[in-house]
Structure formats: C-alpha cells, structure tokens
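Progress report, Aim 2. The chain analyzed during this reporting quarter is listed below.
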Amino acid sequence: MLGGREFNKLLLGINAEPNRFVEDPRDSRRWWIYITLPPNVRETFDLHLEVLCLSASYERVEPRTLDTIAKRLNDGEARLDPDFAILLTPDPAAVDLVRRRRGQLAVLVINSNDLLSGSPMGLRERIAQIMVTHDHYDLTLPITEPAAFYGRRAEVAELEFALDRGQPVGVFGLRKAGKTSLLNYVAQRRAGLGKPVVRLDISGLQTVHEFQLALLEMCHKAVRQHGGAVPRLMTLTREGNPNPTVQTGTFWIRDLNALLDALPGRLELFIDEIDQAWPGRSNLGSEEATAVLKALTQLRGVVQSREAEGKDGIGIVCAGVDPAIFERPLLDGRDNLLYKFVRLAFLSPMKREEMQEMVRSLGKRMGLRYSDHHTIDFLFREFGGHPLLTRKACSVAASKRPDFEIPWHVPLSALEDASEMRGPNTPRSEVRDVLDSFTAWFGDEAAMLPLLWSEDPEEREEAREWARSEPDMAAHLVSYGITDESWAPRIHAMRALVLR
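Predicted structure tokens for the chain:
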C-alpha cells in the first residue's frame, strides 16, 4: 500500500484508530480501511461513525473507483458514516474527479506521493479544508448516486408498486423538481434487484430512428447481461451493432418482441423527457416529434398485445413537465392513441421532513449545522420543499460562513439575506426560472395567480371560489406545488414575483 506507513502516521497525529484493514478480493491493488476518529474530531465534524478509506494504488483513478466507494457507503453497513469517505491514491488528478462529483459524494483525496514527500498538513486540517471548499448544495444536474438521493419515499414506493404489476406510470412536475433524479434512483434500485432495466432520454435523441435503435441496442445489452441467448435480429448484428443494410423502422417491432422473449422477465423501461414527443412542445421539430409519438404508440401496441398473449411485456415509467401526451384525447383533430395510456403521478416539492433531511445531510458534509428549527421553517415556507430552490438558498448562505469556522451553525439571517439577493445565480433568479417554465407550459393557470394571491381579500376569494368550482382549469397549480390545496402560495418566494 503506497504511502501506507505515512498515512498511518497521519491517523496517529490526531489519535485516530484504523480498526480494520481489508484487502479487496476483486482487486489486490485496493485496500479498505475502517477508521475511528477521536471524540474531539468526531464532534467538530459530526463524524460519529467509522470513516471509510479506500487505498487504491492505481496511477490513474477512474470514475468507477468512486462508484465503488459510493456503493460501499450505500450498502448500509451500520458502523459506517454514509456522508464521508477518504481516498488514498498517487493520482493527482483524483482531486478534480472528486470535485466534479460534489453534491453526490463527499470524499477527501489524500495523495500518497504528497505524504511520501513529507507534507506537514494534518488529517484534521485536510478534512476542514475539503468541507470549506466543496459546496455540496451547488448542484444543478440530476442525482445519480443513491447516497445523494433524499426523501421521495412515497413516490419510490408508488413507482415500484406499479412496476411490479406492469402498470405504465408517467411522472410530471416542475422544472428541477427531481423527476430525472427519481427515475435514476428507481432504475438503479430495480437493476440492483436483477430486473432488466433500460433507460432512454428523448431530449438526447434527434430522430425517431435514434429512438428505435437506442431501445433495441439497450435491450440487446440487457439480454446479454442477464445471460439470455441473443436472438437473430434484422436491425442489429449478433454483436449488437446497427445493421446498415436494414431500415430500422420496418423491423424494429419484430426485433423488439424477439428481444423481450429472450429476457428473463418483464422489461422495465424508463423514458425521460417524454413531452418531447408531443408535437408543438418538442425541440425535435413537429415532424420528428410526430414520428416519435407514432413509435410510442407502436410501443403501446406491443405492451397490450403481449399482455393479451400472457407474455412478459414492458413496464414503463416516463417523466416530463407537460402530461398533454397522455391528457389530451385529440391531436390535430385525430384520436391520440396514448390518451390515458399511463397513470399520471405528479411530483410536487418535497415534504418538510424530507427537505430537512437533505439540508442537514448536505450541510454535514460542509461542516454546517442547521440546529435552529426556524431555519428549516424559513426554507420550507419560502421555497415549499422545491429541492433546487432550497439548495440554492443554502449554497448562497454557506458562502457567508466566517473563514474556516467549523462547525458553523447557519443563522436564520444568512438564509433571509440569501433569499433577498438580486441578480443571476441567486435563489430569486431560480424561482423566476421555475415560474417562467410553469408559465410557458401552463399559461392559463399561471395567469390566475395574481388573482388567487391578490392583496384584495374579495378578489382573492372570488378567484379561489372559481378555482374550486372548475378544478380542471387549475389542476396543475396544486399538483405541481405552486399552490397548496386552498390555492395559497406554497413557494412563498414566488408570490412577490407574481404580484410585483
């Protein structure tokens, strides 16, 4: 173990104890070390359980090494702290690799060559440095690490219940409300249970040909992963590469059925950005969107025909902002054959306790404490449990921390100041983006907000009475978490933008 003796001295320097050394049976270049920190360090950094360290002697650390750490943390060992780990490696580029995973994985990188050269920095100082420099709140990309996924327990259970029964489900909600993160999490859980899983993102495709081919290629890969015999296909070679001599659109349903027959059970298909297949809403253009919509209609036919024949078919979970593709019975005066194909599930912002768990867990990775319940109350009132808006406010507040103060008990004033900031990349600008997105998709409903939230009590009550009498005309306001069930603001920071 390169630098092992020096690393042990680093631990002894703060009276930390390496309790166990475990050689990885799959790779002799990896050793797992389980470390107990002394009481004063545990209290300072809120690391009361054992800290996991991976010693990897690779000259270059690949992303899969971080995946290995994440999996170990997520396996649920009761003695391990799930929010922090150490990586001992000679690769100087590992620091940047870990920095790119901020918000999902908190790892302190210690360079073994740095230790061999006699670096004087102690372990306590190293932990403090990474907690101050890595902003785990500042994350705008979808979550891919299970350890970074918070809450949504009811939604996860609902999707898994539907998948177990082969019921198609569509998840719809606000921009950055966590739809893609939810799909990623459930897809990973199902794959971990041995289910054949395929995930597609329509926004990453350009043509219906790409959609059809991507689905076939991923199904082909799933058959191989599950040890099935790959059938002879028209659209793909035996190795799973596209057959350039065959038009995919002509044979893709035939080949899809053959691949489904070769799988050990029902295929679980996750489709993100499903609203990109709705003409008039799509960035693909009307012609290609119409073609993808037709392909999805063919897919519906496969689901129904296989169910009628008693064969394993496809369990579908899809996500988007606008559920029109399943809500509207007609398209250009013709029947929309996807109408009511899926059961709609609307992803409103997080519950208060789930938001609190996210805020405190991410804060722990940064040496921040949210011990005053008023801070949590304020965040939930202002941002309604919307994950991106909440994280942005916490990120801005964290930037006000006095130099290297750990732990820093985040005061209510820091959050209040953050919510009042103007300009780009502030909580207010993110609230504006969410409101603008909702307005773009549901303009008629957004136009009701000035009346529903009016300063005039009589005008406000008349608007709310109308909303109660015509619930379909304002259905997304409640289900998307813009208002509560009485039509009052759920995201209070949005009210000032509506009424200005």
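DSSP finds 22 helices and 14 strands in the chain. The CA atoms of residues 370 and 410 lie 6 Å apart. These observations will guide the mutagenesis work planned for the next reporting period.
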